[in-house]
Amino acid sequence: MCTVTWTARPDDGYQLLFSRDEQRTRPAASPPRVTAHAGFSLLAPHDPTGGGTWIFANGHGLTACVLNFYDAPAPPAPPADGLLAISPSARALAWTWDGRQLTPRAAPTPGFITTSSFDASRVVPARHAAYAAWREEAAQDLPAFHRAASVSPDAFSVRMSRPDARTVSLTEVVCAPAERLLSMSYFPREADGPFSSGQTWQLTLREPHDSF
């Protein structure tokens, strides 16, 4: 139950937005923090239940994120996921893990991926249609698309609210190789209204890495 969008920046690099949807019973995540891994820095929020994260960005300008995959043909073990990675040049690659096999999937830039555990056969096409309509009108404002909700917030909205689950946070990553800077902004949502005021963390980019 998540939505991710991404686009190339006019002056180089990319912008990526990730709306995280979770069960209401799941504890709140911790905001991003800078950690070191394999000799370079990365930024990632922390999920106390799973012990990991759903999105990270590193000092080479690479961002990767995970979405649940609800269209697996049979109940797999472990749970199925969708994976997305985007490089400093805004080149995106995506894969689907069905619990048994990792399969590449199309990931053009600009791009849009959404999943839903509720009525996916209707919710996913409705969100794609909303994204297509938004691109025709205001394609330069990805945050506005993620912050919007229908008149009665429900499962069909990108910023969704259901009795059992809701959108809990919005994460924005901006990679600007020309400025040697990567930023991650994190906006929690404590209730069913708008996202709260966020915070921004920054990394100084090392040599941008476009190896994939």
Overall description:
This protein is mainly beta. It has a single domain (2-204), classed as Penicillin V Acylase, Chain A, CATH 3.60.60. Helix content is 12%, strand content 42%. The strands form 2 sheets. It has a 7-stranded antiparallel sheet, with no helix packed on it. Strand 1 and strand 2 (14-23) form a beta hairpin. The radius of gyration is 16 Å and the shape is globular. The chain starts with a strand and ends in an 8-residue tail after the last strand.
- Calculate the terminal CA-CA distance, rounded to whole Å: 27 Å
Shape: globular
Q: How many runs of DSSP E, i.e. beta strands?
A: 13
Class by alpha and beta content: mainly beta
CATH superfamily: Penicillin V Acylase, Chain A
The strands making up the biggest β-sheet line up spatially as 3-4-5-6-7-8-9
Give the averaged pLDDT, no decimals: 88
Main sheet characteristics: 7 strands, antiparallel
- Helix run count: 2
**DSSP helix fraction:** 10-25%
Q: Tell me the series of helices and strands, N- to C-terminal.
A: EEEEEEEEEEHHEEE
Instruction: Assign the CATH topology.
Output: Penicillin V Acylase, Chain A
Give the radius of gyration.
16 Å
Our estimate of the beta-strand percent is 35-45%
* Poorly predicted segments: 73-80
| The first-level CATH class name | Alpha Beta
Tally of structural domains: 1
User: What CATH architecture would you give?
Assistant: 4-Layer Sandwich
